[in-house]
Design goal:
By secondary structure, the protein is α/β, with parallel strands linked by helices. The chain has 2 domains: 69 residues, no CATH class; 149 residues, 3-Layer(aba) Sandwich (Rossmann fold), CATH 3.40.50. The protein is built from 10 helices and 9 strands. The strands form 2 sheets. It has a 7-stranded mixed sheet, with helices on both faces. Strands 1-2 form a two-stranded antiparallel ribbon. It is globular.
C-alpha cells in the first residue's frame, strides 16, 4: 500500500480537508489505490483551495503531490517569513502548479511566478492556477542562472526551488539573481548534499541549514 494512502487511512480528518466533496474523495481514493497506466487528466476539488478544482494526471505521482502540498505543506517558508509579507514569489520547478496555486490562495498580496520546463506540466499548471491568473504566471522555461538574473529585475521575497537537478550550478558562480532574495528553500537532488547546499547558500549571504519540514530540503534566510 502506498505510504501516502496509509497516512490517509490513519488521518481521515486530514483526508477530508484535502478533498472538498464526496465525489472528489472517491476519485482521490481510486487514484491512490490504482496502478493503472496514465490515461488522462482527472478533476478534483480541493478543500485547502476553498473547493476550487485542480487537474492531475492519472498513473503519475501527481496524486502523491496532492498530499504533500495540501496536507504536509513542506513547500512553505517559516511563519516569521510569511508574517513579513510576500509581495513576489518564485516557484522554480512548479510541476503541474499545485504549490503555485496553494501559495497564490494563501498569500493574496503576492505575485507568484511558476517556472516549469516540461511543456505538458506547464500546460496543466496554467489551468490549475487560472483562478488567480490576475497575479499568477506560469512560464515554460529551463531554469538557468541567466533566466533567473532576468527575473531578478523584480526580486522575490521567497523562492521555492525543486528542479530535479542543477541546483549546484544555479547556486554557484553567477548567482547574482539571489542577491535580493529574502528566503529560499532548495530541494537537493542527485549527489548534491544538504551540507553542500547550505554552504553555497551561506556564501550567497543566507543563514542556511537543513529544513525541518523535508529531509531533502535546505532553508536559507536573510
Amino acid at each position: 500500500m502506498p505510504a501516502a494512502l496509509q497516512r490517509a487511512l490513519v488521518r481521515p480528518t486530514a483526508l477530508l480537508r484535502l478533498t472538498a466533496d464526496r465525489e472528489s474523495y472517491r476519485e482521490y481514493m481510486r487514484l491512490r489505490s490504482s496502478d493503472a497506466p496514465a490515461e488522462g487528466e482527472v478533476e478534483l476539488r480541493i478543500g485547502r483551495l476553498a473547493g476550487r478544482s485542480v487537474w492531475v494526471r492519472e498513473g503519475t505521482d501527481d496524486v502523491d503531490q496532492l498530499w504533500r502540498v495540501f496536507i504536509d505543506s513542506d513547500h512553505l517558508p517559516p511563519a516569521k517569513v510569511q508574517r513579513r509579507g510576500l509581495p513576489r514569489v518564485w516557484d522554480l520547478g512548479c510541476g503541474i502548479g499545485l504549490t503555485t496555486a496553494e501559495m497564490a490562495l494563501r498569500w493574496p498580496e503576492a505575485h507568484v511566478v511558476g517556472v516549469e520546463r516540461d511543456r505538458g506540466e506547464a500546460r496543466i499548471a496554467r489551468r490549475n492556477v487560472e483562478p488567480w491568473d490576475d497575479r499568477t504566471q506560469v512560464v515554460e522555461a529551463e531554469v538557468t542562472a541567466d533566466f533567473l538574473n532576468g527575473l531578478a529585475a523584480e526580486p522575490a521575497a521567497y523562492v521555492k526551488m525543486s528542479l530535479d537537478g542543477g541546483e549546484r550550478e544555479l547556486l554557484g558562480d553567477g548567482a547574482d539573481w539571489a542577491a535580493e532574495v529574502g528566503c529560499i528553500k532548495v530541494y537537493v537532488h542527485g549527489d548534491y548534499t544538504r551540507d553542500e547546499c547550505a554552504r553555497d547558500l551561506a556564501r550567497l549571504g543566507f543563514e542556511a541549514g537543513a529544513d525541518r519540514r523535508h529531509e531533502h530540503a535546505v532553508l536559507g534566510l536573510r
